[in-house]
Amino acid sequence: MFIVILGGGINLSGDLPDHVYQRLNKAIDLYKKNPQTKIIATGKYSFLYDQIKKYPALTESEKMSEYLVKKEIPKKDILLENKSKDTISNAYYLKKNFFIPKKETQATIITSHFHLDRVKYIFQKVFGPGYDFQFVGIQETLPKDEEKKVIDHQKYLLKRTKQILSPMKDGDHNFLKGKLYKIKYYREKRPGWVIDFVAKGK
User: Fold this and answer.
1) What is the longest distance spanned by two Cα atoms in the chain?
2) How many domains does the chain have?
3) What does the alpha-carbon distance between residue 156 and residue 161 come to, in Å, rounded to a whole number?
4) pTM > 0.85
């Protein structure tokens, strides 16, 4: 069984936002209860960095791994998925590079409450039947005005995600081969606060 921590931003200095540390702490609690599991830290950096042409020194997964080791999680039990730049590619690379090769079908997927509906939809589409996932959405405390903006934006992203993935049969991850980061969705301009929140970790 895997414990999967989905990435949630990293800034140019290589710092993670608070909500990602909350995800990490939840993963640590789960690991301590079930130490025969492996933790997968996911994420390279947001594809939004490609729009500003600047990149962090560390990947999200590398920074998460540093924190896990500091909290005494054995390095041998930490796996890095360091190719993905968004939630769709999180699921794609997890399935292709970890679940299929290791013949694993069970996992706990950890994200944030505002991200949960989109994560469930994407993982259903990419993985399809035959996988037993538990989804954990951490309830962070965000300022009220910021929380509303984030939730509303996630609703919009879920709508766009359904437009992108609706032609894909559940479980046909090869549908995404050659499409990641190339379709129009990835070139759409995002509001400045979204880039701050997602790409810069603010």
Assistant:
1) 44
2) 1
3) 9
4) yes
